[in-house]
């Protein structure tokens, strides 16, 4: 179908028009910026300009008096004749917005827009059809290129968003694999770090596709490689996208490595500040457990400490410093050291808490928050002086009785928000159990804290439960 484009125009005339009308018509056809042809009622070419003849790859004179099916490739010729019959039958203008055809001269795919106009005779019947064809290939290619660019940008944004949520190196690896499958259709995609690099051809997948190896580089140099196996060769535009993706992978990988180093440092610091073993005290049985919410959970400021005083009394503390990572662990260490020093000077809860308020205000930032519950236990008298700073209540289960919550300062302010600190005394008997904990034990997504506290009491009531 001759939907074709521009150059200079010329036409053969074959009518009985007056010479002036003929000259005008020839000029209009000659100067027309689009391809043009005119067909008679037998569907044969009566006129054609140079632009359309060049599109068809056939001289103008070889068109005149012949059917499109005699001049053009079979499929295109049949399509043109079908369109002509439609216009002759309906007498209506027909527009083809997007017609694709293989160019007879270049063999590449071309895109055209065409309009088919019925030419009425003096009696109103259609005596011919004129067609104007515009080659819109360049415009369509630009539109397609813009669409592909928009799609690549959207894919890169989705990949960047997914990678931004990857905390660890393994998270980055998994995310990259998902991106490879969903956005690239990759046979295989993986991150290679350090010495763990495989040469091309070392994997069965290499034989099934095209292997690309892209450097993962950050400001400090190359930190790895992104190895991709694709089923099809990669063009220039796709190469640019893959290079941008490799850049985002490198940023995510470096961030994950820094996170893992900091997390390892914080975990080491945190563990070093917790007691290696619990002290022994006559008449008391002590137990402690410290466990992260999940293996890959961030290191926080949760801590506990148990130590004895020279007079035989025992200090037990459970606390929580707001934040994550090294800063939280370091804050925990400062708080623990200050508490031990204050407790050896005056171990009463109210004195230690007031001293911690002063220390905390002097050493920590205004935005920092810390809570704790403090017990001073006398094994001989079976009494415990307790106090707290904004911390959760204790759970007390007396022998043979239901567990209850004991307020050790849950209505008080956290450390660093000074107020008059108070203490209370618990009388303890044989078989009594006192449990202190941090919010990680009772706070869960979808549950309020009261539900968490109730669950802990149920567990204390029936230790065989889960």
Give an overview of the whole structure:
The chain has 3 domains: 19-135, Beta-Lactamase, CATH 3.30.450; 141-269, Beta-Lactamase (2-Layer Sandwich), CATH 3.30.450; 287-461, 4-Layer Sandwich (Phosphatase 2c, domain 1). Helices cover 37% and strands 25% of the residues. It contains 10 helices and 16 strands. Strands 2-1-5-4-3 form a 5-stranded antiparallel sheet, with helices on both faces. A 5-stranded antiparallel sheet has the order 9-10-11-12-15. The longest helix has 38 residues, at 236-273. Residues 1-17 have low confidence and may be disordered.
Topology:
Layout: H1 19-31, E1 35-40, E2 45-48, H2 50-56, H3 68-71, H4 74-90, E3 94-102, E4 109-120, E5 126-135, H5 137-164, H6 169-184, E6 188-192, E7 210-218, E8 221-230, H7 236-273, E9 300-308, E10 314-324, H8 325-345, H9 349-363, E11 370-378, E12 383-389, E13 394-397, E14 404-406, E15 424-427, E16 433-435, H10 449-461
Helix pairs in contact: 5-6, 5-7, 6-7, 7-8, 8-9
């Amino acid at each position: 179908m001759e939907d074709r484009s521009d150059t200079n125009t010329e036409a053969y005339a074959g009518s009985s028009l007056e010479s002036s009308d003929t000259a005008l018509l020839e000029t209009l056809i000659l100067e027309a910026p689009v391809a043009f042809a005119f067909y008679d009622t037998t569907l044969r070419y009566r006129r054609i300009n140079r632009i359309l003849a060049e599109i068809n790859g056939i001289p103008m004179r070889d068109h005149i008096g012949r059917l499109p099916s005699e001049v053009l490739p079979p499929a295109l010729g049949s399509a043109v004749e079908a369109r002509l019959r439609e216009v002759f039958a309906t007498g209506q203008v027909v527009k083809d917005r997007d017609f694709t055809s293989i160019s007879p001269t270049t063999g590449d795919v071309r895109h055209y827009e065409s309009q088919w106009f019925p030419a009425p005779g003096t009696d109103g019947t259609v005596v011919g059809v004129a067609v104007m064809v515009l080659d819109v290939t360049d415009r369509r290619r630009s539109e397609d290129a813009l669409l592909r660019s928009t799609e690549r940008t959207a894919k890169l944004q989705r990949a960047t968003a997914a990678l931004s949520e990857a905390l660890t190196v393994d998270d980055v690896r998994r995310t990259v694999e998902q991106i490879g499958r969903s956005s690239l259709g990759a046979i295989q995609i993986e991150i290679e770090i350090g010495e763990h690099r495989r040469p091309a051809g070392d994997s069965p997948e290499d034989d099934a596709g095209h292997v690309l190896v892209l450097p993962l580089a950050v400001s400090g140099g190359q930190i790895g490689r992104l190895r991709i196996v694709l089923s099809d060769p990669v063009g220039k535009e796709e190469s640019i996208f893959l290079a941008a993706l490799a850049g985002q992978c490198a940023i995510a990988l470096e961030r994950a490595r820094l996170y893992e180093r900091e997390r390892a440092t914080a975990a080491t610091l945190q563990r070093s500040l917790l007691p290696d073993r619990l002290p022994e005290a006559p008449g008391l049985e002590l137990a402690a457990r410290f466990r992260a919410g999940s293996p890959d959970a961030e290191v926080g400021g949760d801590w506990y400490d148990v130590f004895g005083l020279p007079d035989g009394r025992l200090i037990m503390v459970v606390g929580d410093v707001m934040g994550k990572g090294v800063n939280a662990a370091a804050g925990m260490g400062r708080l623990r050291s200050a508490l031990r020093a204050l407790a050896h000077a005056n171990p009463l809860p109210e004195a230690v808490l007031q001293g911690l308020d002063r220390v905390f205000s002097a050493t920590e930032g205004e935005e920092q928050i810390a809570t704790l519950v403090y017990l001073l236990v006398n094994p001989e008298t079976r009494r415990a002086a307790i106090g707290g700073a904004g911390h959760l209540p204790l759970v007390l289960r007396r022998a043979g009785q239901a567990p209850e919550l004991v307020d050790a300062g849950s209505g008080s302010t956290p450390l660093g928000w000074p107020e008059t600190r108070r203490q209370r005394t618990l009388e303890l008997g044989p078989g009594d159990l006192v449990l202190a904990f941090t919010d990680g034990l009772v706070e869960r997504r979808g549950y309020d804290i009261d539900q968490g506290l109730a669950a802990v009491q149920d567990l204390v009531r029936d230790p065989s439960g889960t």
